Predict the structure of Alpha-1,4 glucan phosphorylase.
Amino acid sequence: MTDTSRGEYASDELQTTDVHRIGPTMPMSSERASGPVEAPDKTVEEFVAAFLNELNFGQGVLLSRSTINDQYLALARTVRQYLMAGWLETGVQRRESGRKTIGYLSAEYLLGRQLSNALLATDLQDIADEAMKQCGIDIAALRAQEIEPGLGNGGLGRLAACFVDSLATMDVPCIGYGIRYEYGIFRQTFEDNRQVEVPDSWLSLGSPWEFPHPERQVRVDFGGRTETYTDDQGRERSRWIPDWNVLGIPYHHMVPGFRNGTVNTLRLWSAKATQAFDLQIFNSGDYAAAVRAQTFAENISKVLYPEDSTPQGKELRLQQQYFFVACSLHDFIQNTLPQDFDLRRLPERIIFQLNDTHPVIAIPELMRILVDRKGFDWDEAWDITRQCFAYTCHTLLPEALEVWSAELLGRLLPRHLEIIYRINKEFLEEVRETFPGDEMRIRSMSIIAEHPERSVRMAYLATIGSSKVNGVAELHSQLLRDKVLPEFSQYWTEKFTNVTNGITPRRFVFLANRRLSDLITDKIGSGWVTDLERLRDLEPYADDADFRAEFAAVKQANKERLFKVLQARDGIELPEHAMLDVMVKRLHEYKRQSLKLLHIVSTYESIISGRMRAEDAVPRTFVFGAKAAPGYHMAKETIFLINSVAATINADERVKDVLSVAFPANYNVTLAEKLIPAADLSEQISLAGKEASGTGNMKFALNGALTIGTDDGANVEIRQLVGDDNFFLFGMTEPEVEQLRAEGYQPTSYYRSNDRLRATIDLLAGGHFTRGDRAASAQVVDNLLTQDPFMALADFQGYLDAQDRVDAVYRDTDAWTRSAILNVARSGFFSSDRSMRDYLDRIWNA
Ligand code: 26W
């Protein structure tokens, strides 16, 4: 039976393991109502047996005939087996305990690869390595086979993924609800230095981490009209007569806690046409129309919107939002709660956390369920509803606050619009009682805006309908209170609070930076992985020369690993010994990649103009990673310019090995895991008051990079914790920004008065980086000179000065490494476990 004809794995070992003769290892009869079946033992032998079982009986191939993809799928399903018992057990416990559940409602989950995380959670990494070796397989190639589920745009989606990781690790009941986009965030490629987007078909090679449950489908209605009627108790009631609907099919994902046996669930909804939907048309004989109808329905979960700051009032986007929210509420109320549950006690069992405004339509949806379907009085329903929601705001940009036109909302969800109007009316009456005659205030607090068209301000609805509202870093929460929702924060001082974001140390330190993790564990034990404040115990080692040497060696090894990845992935060659200066995040003007570019060009200009000798410069490698929203013109022009500058500088012998610029395409979680551990310098240079928190900043600090940054978002807290000596601060503060704006900001005055800035901009504008084509750089340059909406020119000199301080410290290896160690030791606060504890204590009361 054994096929030894092909050479790929022709070893003796292979012949004995090629066909697994034992059959399924899971005893089918041991399925008990009281508890789940056993997982295979954690031994190499059992792992190999389970793997070959999956390959032969799951995937239906012989090892000798299997492709890498077959092997990857079988490996994934093997690891799944080890999680399964915990998953089933967690489900039983959750049902029996009656504990309050966190329903995390998020339109995005930027999960990253699953295999490595599952191996980490189950502590199977070494066993799996050895087992694959025994099968003649290179596990690294299998890991590389996985396409990460990129079901999010950036910070907000990654935060959701970190939060569900932490809740599972803390054994807190949580269901993550979201959308199973068939296409996640686009894959970025570059053609002629310009971004080209390619669809991300992450499901194309099979998706071993999801469990579809078509039998648990939920129907979701849209459109139509409402009518009033009198019920049998003589009460005036409303009902919705929708005119079309779709089905939501749940796909379950495991969310394993870190080595604690808990496995929570992420439930992602996929849209499917109802039979009635196309049958009706089909029966009319128009086959093509029937298929079109199906496509229409299934479009709802087809693709993630790649905009991460300017919501376009797209109908499909609202459909997505209502679709997943309606499915999720129905799922919890009908399927998760006991059959006869008394909904008056709903707040004891669930708190829905609204991840930004995207799921806020859940508030009128719960009102509709309670009032229209379950017969509650309005007031009682409203009291319940408000206790069931809490709202997190993730932005300060006014243009990022979602507003839906009343026309569109009324057309798609007529009953919800009515409910929103009533919520608004009763709320405004309440405000009127407190502030009689203050019509200005009333208008500014209304959910409904009248200009430029009648529309629904979702952030206001969220605030009114929630028990708590939080920002994501201290500064952001303050600005949220003072600038974004001032009337509301005066009206309800207690409702507003801060929870500073965090990141999971499992993925972003333990998994991404194994070398550093081993070094830390060697000194302080392994408790830090689930209790990150313990990193404090590293502080004394900052003064230990041996430790510093080991720490620096880890950094160097991580750089070499990164360089290999960039070489294989992008064909990028980088010098071995240079400071690695990294800016990775979405491309947005407020984040100021253009300011970073000015610094690079300025350094380059200093050398080629002879003002500075190349030998005197600290060698630096600049790395960018950034996707631009496909419709964001200025962001795409900035990408073009960065790539153009990179090509020119990398080809210029005068700066060889002194300055290099790398812009690997398609920055994603997978690349972040390689890049961040290798970085020396973390660029967090947004205009003060614009970056709500940032979370990349935390990942870098925890991996021993020093930050150069403005007083913005969580940078403020990072600096406070790591200390001024270990952070390169520059730039205006938020009040200074406001003041300058009030005075009338004039970017050209900086251009005229600052010689280095002028030389830099002139070089950029003169076509030096665009083969003499001045027009090619004109849009970014003109934007800076005439508008500069995020005041890059005002902060330019401060930034250069701070970069000089960076160079000075970097020249002193001991001082640098000492600071880097202190960054790690003092950043334990930024664990998402701590964020979760804050939510549990101050928001969820769970
Ligand atoms: C298209 C509509 C839209 C608008 C805003 C989509 C997505 C957004 C998000 C709010 C953008 C986002 O990811 N915000 C980021 O959230 C992170 C987690 O809290 C913060 O760390 C970042 O500062 C914030 O920009």
